[in-house]
Amino acid sequence: MKLIYDLFPVILFFVTYHQAGVLVDNTPISQMIDISQPEVIVATILATSVAIIASFFQVTGYWLKHRRFEKMHLVSLGLISILGGITIIFGNPAFIQWKPTLLNWVFAAVFLGSQYLGEKNLVQRMMGGQIQLPQPVWVKLNFAWVIFFILSGAANLYVAFYYGLDQDEKTRMDFWVNFKLFGLMGLTFVFVIAQGLYLSKYMTDNQKED
User: Fold this and answer.
1) Are residues 87 and 106 in the same domain?
2) Exposure class string for 10-41: b at 16+ Cβ within 10 A, else e
3) Which of 5, 17, 61, 68 could bond 47 through an S-S bridge, CB–CB 3.0 to 4.6 Å?
4) Which of 53, 75, 92 lies at the terminal end of a domain, its last residue?
């Protein structure tokens, strides 16, 4: 459930983008934007607007339930508000397309910084209560997440700006929107599974010691 909650703005962005034509034809939303713009621009502006609103609800809902803010939600809200706002004002999808990359690179910087600040890196703080590992393994896992976030950000940039340059703008944008939800999430699942396989050896050793 937490994964769905964390992806709430991304999911709504995806749904709104692909259903933009239905929304324009059947709701008063057509009176709020310039629908004379290209279809892909209208869809992007609508999806971005919904994602910004969803991010505000996400942050507010988490605070009401836990009486604290989730740092990831705040960073995401800040990025989508700034880049999304520029996208809406100028009608240029390039700004919102940078958001996943910047978010991933912020995470990479945080994980990297945690390696040198404090006694435990970020992965050890999150997982140290569930599994006991040698210190070098914690370091490897933390750097693995740093590399993963850097590569995920780079993959987003490639899909957004370099993939399918021979295709029309809408086709390329459609592919990026799909990649933004399914591609990046799929990469995360593959990485987590690989991490689990790597950790299984140490989990077996811990069980033998017990």
Assistant:
1) no
2) bebbbebbeebeebbeeeebeeebebeeeebb
3) 17
4) 92
